[in-house]
Recover the amino acids of this structure.
């Protein structure tokens, strides 16, 4: 059995975080206070901590090249089964969330072939959600 991860990260507006993670992504809400909210992100615990306005210059953020695309760094997300990934992509589209990297398959025909999509939450945190046809390919080498 896998152990769920825990990730705490900054947001600048708890109401926007509650809407995005709860309504857009469909994450059940756990405990909360007036400065943070726990969410169940596909069995993993994420915690949005309101830290006030973010650095407009992107303090420490950048991008990295992956399979011919620049992807935002840092980012986080979950590896899903293909059906859940496709449903999430439709859910994000239905809420008119712009994609940084549209849902697509990368590393086609190679070990570790995967579906992926990137988008930002309202506080500017980058998220990536992946899916593999077979989870045994998650750590496959080229």
């Amino acid at each position: 059995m896998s152990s769920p991860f825990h990730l705490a990260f900054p947001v600048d507006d708890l109401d926007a975080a509650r809407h995005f993670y709860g309504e857009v992504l469909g994450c059940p809400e756990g405990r909360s206070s007036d400065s943070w909210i726990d969410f169940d992100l596909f069995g993993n615990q994420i915690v949005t901590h309101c830290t006030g306005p973010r650095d407009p210059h992107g303090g420490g953020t950048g991008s990295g090249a992956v399979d011919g695309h620049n992807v935002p760094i840092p980012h986080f997300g979950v590896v899903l089964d293909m059906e859940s990934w496709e449903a999430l992509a439709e859910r994000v589209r239905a809420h008119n969330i712009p994609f940084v990297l549209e849902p697509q398959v990368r590393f086609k025909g190679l070990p570790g072939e995967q579906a992926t999509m990137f988008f930002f939450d309202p506080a500017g945190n980058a998220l990536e959600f992946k899916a593999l046809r077979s989870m045994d390919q998650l750590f496959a080498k080229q």
